[in-house]
Amino acid sequence: MSAAPTLVVIGGGPRGTGVIERIAANAPELYGDSPLDIHLVDPHPAGGGRIWRPDQSPLLWMNSMAEDVTMFTDDTVELAGPVVDGPALHAWAEGVRAGRVTPDAEPAVLAEIHGLTGQTFPSRRLQSAYLRWTYRRALAALPPTVTVHEHRTTALAVTGPRGGRQRVRLKDRTEPLLADLVVLTVGHLDAEPDPEQAELSAFAARHGLIHLPPDFTADTDLSALPAGEPVIVRGFGLAFVDLMVLLTEGRGGRHENGVYVPSGQEPVLYVGSRRGVPYHSKIGYTWTGERPPPPRYLTPRWADGLLGRPGPLDFRRDVWPLVAKELGHAHYHRLFTAHPERTALEFEVFEAKYAAADPGSPELDGLVAAAVPDPADRLDLAALDRPLDGTTYESPEALQDGLRAYITDDLTRRHDPGHSADLAVFVGLLSAYAQLVRLGDIGGWWHGFFSYLASGPPGPRLEQLLALSRAGIVRFLGASVTVTADEERGLFRATSPTVPGARTEARALVEARLPDPSLRHTASPLLRTLYEGGAAVTDTGLLAVDPADSRVLDRDGTPHPRRFALGPFTTARNSGAFTRPRTGGPAFRQNDDAARAALAFLRDLSCRDRLASRAAAPAPVPPPPPLPRTPPCR
């Protein structure tokens, strides 16, 4: 009797958990009761993986409310496999409180769960408990003939012929795992320094300075940053928010009624970026009234048409104009239906003229100006993207006042249902992502813009930022920040055209951002070996995968029959392994497609092995009848 087929999943975070959940959901149809060995490889606890591991500071939050987080499919997800309902995070917490759910959680996390509401921004360690429970539920749903083996170690390489078993080399094991199929769900990547970062690190080493390159803030040793000293921070997104929290509250400071009370252990953070402003606050209210319309322009037919065109896509030329028009349609549909008193035209008339106008045309601008009298009610994506372009301040102090006013206005608007067209744009962004993920590598700008507008920090974090600014712990640098190394003085220097002539000097520089997801610069020996072994990568370094089922593409464009990859390092990158309920999360569809392809391959492989075993038998023994749920060999 031949051994059971073997599937190795490398990466035990939410994406790996999602793949196993889909294997459990699809196995009755596609695999039945045949035996299967699954090996899950990750040095961190399965379920949360590295990013959502339980041993994190309780000060680190998710940037989504509990009611906006789910690991489970629903009828809005385009699936070939079955929908398997499950609780969103807040409903799971209700189950814990009611005694229906028993989580694997420390007492402090249990206490947090008991205080959780749908509008709470949970800690990451609470999310870790939810993900661990989801993982265990997925294991329990697997057929009894499927065995899962966990390996708390790092995968170093995947090798092997296209037509044979793959060899997965592990850090703490002499013999490799032999796999009939391998699925890579390793999440975000560490990276080797690019030339600029290498030069800055070398400069810091020569002069005894501190340079912290792009990294996961929770994994960075911040102890070297001295109290009271200036630190230049390049990056104003979610990595900065984590940095801000760990260097203030994490060093004993506290927030009291909108005022920050320092401990005296904080450095002074001088922060700037390309935009010069923080990511927009999460919207602080929920949808009411008429449901948002389905995509009007970014339809599957539109995506099919783009994919059928010869030559590479240019995002700004071929994609962005219609994305902008789709977001505008979402914005104005909500404005006209929910706030008609602020419009000057019947919506049916506006919608017809809007549909006929070319994206970005003077006709479209004129239509909007005539139909929407208040400029604050119009959607200006360029101004949203780069709000400080063309703006200058006469002094650093004037910039501090200006940025505090900007952040305050953003907080006010994002928590005011009177501006619910902003929420419609957010929903439109999610719909756009679901279509754009089909287009493969469209460059990094879109992903950055999406995160800036739709995946920003909780409102309370921006309130804390304002308090830290008023306390002088955080200082704003402006937009288009340039950092140079002064060899003569042995200092880092930051300048910005937002405040002409101003400069900030410091002995410490922190790059507050994640490494780029490029296989060409990855520090992962696993993915480096994959790249060197012939896997295709795009111009930006993303691993190329087949959009149909996430099989890894070789450099001739051929899908590898035994290797799959899902996650932000691939051309099928999307907004996250989990998402808001009832928003058709594309990651769920990708997980389902990959799981079904994997099960079909393993089923057929098992059939070939069984048939070959019967053919080699010494006497023709009639095979036993198949179990009721076992698909027949084909």
Automatic annotation (TrEMBL):
Which segments show compositional bias classed as Pro residues?
619-634
Region ranges (Disordered)? 613-634
Alphabetized Pfam families for the sequence = NAD_binding_9
Give residue ranges for domain FAD-dependent urate hydroxylase HpyO/Asp monooxygenase CreE-like FAD/NAD(P)-binding: 8-188
The record's annotation in InterPro entries points to: FAD/NAD-bd_sf (IPR036188), HpyO/CreE_NAD-binding (IPR038732), L-asp_N-monooxygenase_NS-form (IPR052189)
Q: Could you tell me which PANTHER family the record lists for this protein?
A: BLR0577 PROTEIN (PTHR40254)
Protein name, per record:
Adenylate cyclase
UniProt organism field: Streptomyces rhizosphaericola
